[in-house]
Amino acid sequence: MPTFQYFVASSLDGFIATADDQLDWLLQFDGFDGGKESYDAFMADVGCIVMGGETYAWLRKHEPGNWPYPGTPCWVFTHHEHLAPAGADVTFVRGPVAEFVEDLSAAAAGKNVWIVGGGVLAAQFADAGALDEIIISIIPVVLGNGKAVLPMAGPTAPLELVASRTMGRGILELRYRWGRKPAGP
To answer: What element of type H or E holds 126?
Structure first.
């Protein structure tokens, strides 16, 4: 079974975007030492990508005419109607994430599933017991408010830190094992 991973960047105070979905605070760090290598190594093991409708709409708006994940199946959880980019393997779905875990696993074809975002979608996977790892790059910026990295209703059991490393420009990458809840009746 593939590993379901939430690979994300967060401000020091726990936000993945401003309240109005701006990422200028993050994009100013493009090209930091170790960032490309980390992303490339991560992507080498990704067989399926999952994102929410807002993340999908942001990508389409900010990268018109470019689909950044060619050749990788992408599933978009949304309540809105969207069009897929020409030639992209994009599937639009509605419903609880737990209903799609087996389909996502099959689409990953022996590789991992990347939960791109947003935080609300990643929290749904965590609540469903279908989140295995969080790989989070802490960006040395304080936003004050915005879209939370993982907006869950309450405290979780402690996560297991399995790796950490310092990268360029003061960025810290942390890898935590979440663990799936046991399957129940």
So the answer is: helix 119-127
Q: What angle do CA 8, 29, 114 make, to 5 degrees?
A: 20
- Which alpha helices (H) appear in 33-118, and where do they start and end? 35-43, 53-62, 101-108
Please give the share of the chain, as a percent, with pLDDT higher than 70. 96
CB 6 within 8 A of CB 115: yes
Chain mean pLDDT for the chain = 94
CATH number at residue 46: 3.40.430.10
| Residue 118, domain extent | 4-172
Q: Judge whether 92 and 82 are in contact, CB under 8 Å.
A: yes
**For residue 76, what pLDDT is reported?**
98
What per-residue confidence (pLDDT) applies to 127? 94
Query: 0.90 exceeded by the pTM?
Result: yes
Domain count, the chain: 1
Residue 183 domain-assigned (yes or no): no
**Domain contains 179:** no
Q: Name the nearest CA neighbour of 38 among 178, 167, 176.
A: 167
